[in-house]
């Protein structure tokens, strides 16, 4: 920068058309971290030579810095000082920046959407009008030139220009140099410092000092014509996109300076001509600046009705009149009817005029007592493009260290693209001082399980980055998120307490979202638990019950809340795990949604009642008396030879252990899993995942325990075979029982062909027994039918080979 500065020619001090190179203020914001520059007065070679032998005049440490040795290069002072025995005081330098490079960063790197230029310029105009209003309180004379407070926007597609004009406070020449000529210096921020003790300053928007330069997103050249009430002269500020300088001159009659305020003329770039069209400008104002407190007028085309003469109808009426007159005269009668007046009709004419395009006051800044329910419903439907009234809304304001206003809605139906609900839903519209910022901050303001909620949030305290496109993580955001979640859950509780079917409607549409919340939101897990609904073994098909109602209706002696997971309600109802619980009168929740079981595993308990999967081992069915315990112990001892034999026969690869069941009444046996592994239902779900991890499946599979029913005839017969030493037949029966238990318990069979072969063999035995009356067993346990005696060729006759010769009873 120093070398470049020495090559620049010296400039005249006061040119007629003054060209100034803008400095950039020192600031710690992200956009201006390199913006401290002093480019207005570059040092000459002689000055650099003199500074080699004496301190820098602008250095803060000049008085305290020791003299340097002659011939030492001033640019390597720090390196030279490091070689001395005693550390010397370092030189203090100010950061330098290339202005055109800084502007390039602001224009091309700071903003990702060029539409926001109009938002920034309108916000600046709003601040100027606010400053005028504040000043007029103590000095009413500032309103003398123009009593109106408004903004006007006019595009000209023919000349490819766009004009944004306001009747605000205006700027003096010094204001132009300090505000527009100094990058990243916010005049609004400075004005707010003066008003920091006054609450009226809360509506001021700008604070970064770079929003004005966003106009270069769409313009090659910017011309600002401004007039301040305290200045007799109007001034013109001009700059082009690739220039590192700007010019200031006194306005002439040709500049059409306003009586008071500022007019910004943008010469649009190639490809930005759309921003001169009134429809595009109107849409941008409605999107970003609809709720600015001052009127925004856009020069637009609109259809105006007018009355014109209907020539044909008038001629027809005149013809009828003349006909009647002639007939009367022919009859000699007096004709007294008045002549018809011209017939008028309404036509519409396109005219161009300034049209107010923004509302005066947003609904959320009004008191909830002053807003009718119809107004809330209309705002919801118009803002979020819905056609049904919301199920509920919550309008509230938070005050204290963090202040914001918000309206939240629960929609009346799920969106048609519900499968994409976890993507960015654009559900929360974020405003800062009534200026729309973005609708893509859902994840920052609400957890993803509440993406169905619609609403607006308006805050003055949000930590936005300079472009207002990124919401930075901070305590403010965390507190706002916590409040929004709590208010949303309050709405849902209110809906759940209604006597009508509103909550059933909500649950059908958004029930899965709340189950996801139980998984992801540990802080609100209990609150979400009260909102869950499930079908149960005691409800009708399609009817659901909450956990509160379940706990209230639990019979005496039931220790836990029981649930079973299955694909459908029918599969859950017919599950063998329910047998003993149904006999005891216990109610069982049916988890028939794939997400249900995961949600219950995370909830773990509700109102001090554990949630228990009845397909897992060590099921507690309540307290039993001593006599029952003694009887159970005796049964286990009696069945121990069989359980030991089954465990040895099936092997550790199939079952970890075999035990006597307490939950079966009819089914011969089932397979239960360990407490901390996957259930049969979860194992099936995880296997179906397209991107599932096979390694995780191996160690997450639950260890299987085979539980046998000591009262089942099949088990008693197997026990007798084992006791009689018929091991081969018993082993085949045990294998078939294990495969049947796999299916009955919800598992998949690893070798379905082998299982089918066993079933076919059993069917063959039954058929053979019906034909011959004798079924001799084979070495595998009697499942293979006895072989028929081979017939000689001479014994086979043509009559026997015919189908008619087959006994129909055998068939």
Q: Please report the total strand number as a whole number.
A: 23
Query: How large is the radius of gyration?
Result: 43 Å
Distance between the termini: 105 Å
- Binned, the helix content reads 25-40%
> Overall mean pLDDT score?
78
Shape descriptor? elongated
Q: How many H/I helical runs? A: 25
> Structural class, judged by helices and strands?
alpha+beta
Largest sheet: 9 strands, mixed
Spatial strand sequence of the major β-sheet: 1-6-5-4-7-3-2-8-9
Beta-strand percentage? 15-25%
Give the low-confidence spans: 1-16, 24-84, 194-208, 771-811
Quick gist of this model?
The protein has 25 helices and 23 strands.
Structure description:
The protein is an alpha+beta fold. Strand 12 and strand 13 (435-438) form a beta hairpin. Residues 1-16, 24-84, 194-208 and 771-811 have low confidence and may be disordered.
Which short descriptors sum up this protein?
single chain; 811 residues; alpha+beta; nine-stranded mixed β-sheet; six-stranded mixed β-sheet; disordered N terminus; disordered C terminus
What's the structural blueprint in terms of helices and strands?
Blueprint: H1 2-7, E1 18-20, H2 45-51, H3 77-81, H4 99-110, H5 116-138, E2 151-156, E3 161-166, H6 173-180, H7 187-194, E4 219-227, E5 234-240, E6 246-250, E7 261-268, H8 278-288, E8 296-309, H9 311-330, E9 344-356, H10 373-384, E10 392-398, E11 404-410, E12 428-432, E13 435-438, H11 442-445, E14 454-459, H12 475-496, H13 502-520, H14 525-529, E15 533-536, E16 545-546, H15 547-552, E17 561-565, H16 569-573, H17 579-584, E18 588-591, H18 596-603, E19 605-606, E20 609-613, H19 626-650, E21 657-660, E22 669-673, H20 680-687, H21 694-700, E23 704-708, H22 713-724, H23 727-744, H24 752-772, H25 798-801
């Amino acid at each position: 920068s120093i070398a470049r500065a020495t090559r620049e020619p010296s400039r005249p001090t006061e040119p007629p058309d003054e060209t100034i190179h803008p400095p950039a203020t020192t600031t710690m914001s992200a956009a201006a971290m390199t913006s401290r520059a002093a480019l207005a007065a570059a040092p000459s070679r002689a000055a650099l030579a003199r500074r080699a032998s004496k301190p820098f005049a602008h250095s803060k440490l000049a008085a305290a810095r020791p003299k340097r040795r002659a011939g030492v290069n001033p640019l390597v002072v720090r390196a030279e000082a490091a070689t001395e025995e005693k550390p010397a005081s370092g030189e203090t330098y100010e950061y330098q920046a290339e202005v055109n490079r800084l502007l390039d960063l602001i224009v091309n790197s700071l903003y990702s959407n060029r539409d926001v230029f109009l938002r920034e310029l309108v916000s600046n105009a709003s601040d100027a009008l606010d400053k005028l209003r504040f000043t007029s309180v103590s000095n009413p004379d500032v309103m003398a030139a123009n009593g109106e407070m408004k903004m006007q926007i006019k595009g000209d597609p023919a000349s490819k220009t766009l004009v944004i004009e306001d009747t605000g406070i205006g700027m003096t020449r010094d204001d132009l140099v300090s505000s527009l000529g100094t990058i990243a210096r916010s005049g609004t921020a400075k004005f707010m410092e003066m008003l920091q003790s006054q609450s009226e300053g809360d509506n001021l928007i700008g604070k970064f000092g770079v929003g004005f330069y966003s106009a270069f997103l769409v313009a090659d050249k910017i011309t600002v014509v401004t007039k301040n009430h305290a200045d007799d002269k109007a001034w013109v500020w001009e700059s082009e996109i690739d220039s590192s300088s700007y010019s200031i001159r006194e306005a002439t009659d040709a500049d059409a300076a306003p009586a008071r305020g500022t007019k910004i003329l943008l010469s649009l770039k190639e490809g930005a001509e759309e921003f001169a069209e009134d429809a595009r400008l109107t849409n941008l104002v409605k999107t970003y600046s609809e709720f600015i407190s001052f009127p925004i007028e856009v020069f637009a085309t609109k259809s105006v009705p007018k009355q014109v003469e209907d020539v044909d109808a008038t001629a027809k009426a005149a013809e009828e009149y003349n006909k009647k007159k002639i007939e009367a005269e022919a009859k000699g009668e007096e004709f007294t009817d008045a002549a018809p007046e011209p017939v008028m009709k309404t036509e519409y004419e396109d005219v161009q005029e300034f049209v107010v395009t923004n509302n005066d006051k947003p609904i959320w800044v009004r008191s909830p007592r002053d807003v009718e329910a119809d107004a809330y419903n209309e705002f919801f439907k118009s803002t979020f493009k819905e056609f049904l009234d919301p199920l509920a809304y919550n309008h509230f304001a938070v005050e204290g260290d963090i202040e914001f206003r918000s309206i939240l809605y629960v929609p009346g139906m799920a969106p048609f693209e519900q499968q994409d609900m976890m993507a960015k839903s654009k559900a929360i519209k974020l405003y800062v001082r009534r200026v729309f910022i973005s609708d893509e901050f859902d994840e920052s303001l609400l957890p993803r399980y509440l993406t169905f909620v619609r609403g607006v949030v308006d805050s003055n305290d949000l930590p936005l980055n300079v472009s207002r496109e990124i919401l930075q993580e901070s305590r403010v955001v965390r507190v706002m998120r916590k409040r929004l979640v709590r208010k949303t859950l309050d709405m849902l509780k209110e809906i759940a307490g209604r006597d009508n079917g509103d909550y059933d409607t909500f649950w059908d549409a958004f029930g899965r979202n709340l189950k996801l919340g139980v998984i992801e939101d540990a802080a609100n897990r209990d609150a979400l638990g009260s909102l869950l609904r499930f079908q149960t073994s005691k409800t009708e098909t399609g009817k659901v019950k909450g956990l509160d109602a379940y706990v209230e209706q639990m019979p005496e002696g039931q220790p836990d809340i029981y649930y079973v997971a299955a694909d459908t309600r029918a599969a859950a109802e017919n599950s063998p795990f329910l047998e003993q619980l149904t006999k005891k009168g216990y109610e069982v929740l049916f988890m028939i949604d794939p997400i249900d079981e995961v949600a219950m595993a995370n909830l773990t308990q509700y109102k001090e009642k554990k949630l228990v999967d009845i397909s897992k081992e060590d099921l507690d069915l309540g307290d039993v008396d001593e006599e029952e315990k003694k009887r159970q112990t005796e049964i286990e001892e009696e069945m121990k030879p069989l359980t030991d034999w089954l465990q040895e026969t099936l092997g550790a690869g199939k079952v970890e252990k075999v035990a006597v069941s307490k939950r079966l009444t009819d089914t011969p046996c089932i397979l239960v899993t360990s407490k901390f592994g996957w259930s049969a239902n979860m194992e099936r779900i995880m296997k179906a995942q397209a991107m599932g991890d096979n390694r995780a499946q191996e160690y997450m599979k639950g260890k299987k325990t085979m539980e046998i029913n000591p009262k089942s005839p099949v088990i008693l017969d197997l026990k007798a075979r084992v006791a009689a030493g018929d091991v081969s037949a018993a082993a085949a029966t045990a294998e078939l029982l294990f495969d049947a238990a796999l299916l009955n318990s919800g598992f998949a069979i690893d070798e379905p062909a082998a299982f089918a072969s066993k079933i076919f063999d059993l069917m063959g035995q039954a058929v053979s027994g019906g034909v011959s009356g004798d079924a001799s067993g084979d070495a595998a346990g009697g499942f293979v039918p006895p072989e028929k005696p081979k017939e000689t060729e001479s014994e086979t006759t043509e009559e026997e080979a015919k189908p008619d010769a087959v006994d129909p009873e055998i068939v």
